[in-house]
Amino acid sequence: MTLSKTDKINLSEVRMQKALGFLEDAQATLRDGRINTSINRSYYAALNAIRSLLILDGVNPASHDGAITLLSLRFVKTKQLSADLIKKFKSLLSSRTDVDYGDFVTVEFSDAEESQSQAEEIIKEIDSLRSKLIKELQ
Questions:
Q1: Where do the structural domains in the chain lie, given as residue ranges?
Q2: What is the SS3 assignment for 107?
Q3: Which of 36, 37, 117, 129 has the fewest Cβ atoms within 10 angstroms?
Q4: CA 61, 62, 64, 65 torsion-angle sign
Q5: Closest C-alpha to 91, from 48, 43, 124
Q6: Interacting residues of 27 by C-beta distance below 8 A, sequence separation 6+
Q7: For residues 73 and 69, what is the distance between their CA atoms, to the nearest angstrom?
Q8: Which of 106, 73, 112 minimizes the C-alpha distance to 91?
Q9: In the prediction, which pLDDT does 138 show?
Q10: Fold category of 5-137 in CATH
């Protein structure tokens, strides 16, 4: 994918806004007692934050696993992001997979709260680096 610096920044911003919207959805659905949906939205909030960062580096993963791999190679291995971020994201992916596809999975309110907390931490760390990279691109 070949994008101009401006296009990368604009797409990154769209994806971060989407991430923040999904995080708001996670909070609202948890307040409504919809635990599974809250976990799902927390995961997608984190995924979109990750995608908002990766596009600044000119990559657009085609899969969820691709997002993990590219984030690891381009930002964790280079120590720009913590390795703990990948662990949190994999935990979110596992929880989201369980609630979306598990027929007999039982989750608690506290599980959804933990998912939201992980998503918030991921978004915060990613947005900090994203802001730095945007300044370097401008």
A1: 5-137
A2: coil
A3: 117
A4: negative
A5: 43
A6: 38, 116
A7: 6
A8: 112
A9: 86
A10: Four Helix Bundle (Hemerythrin (Met), subunit A) (1.20.120)
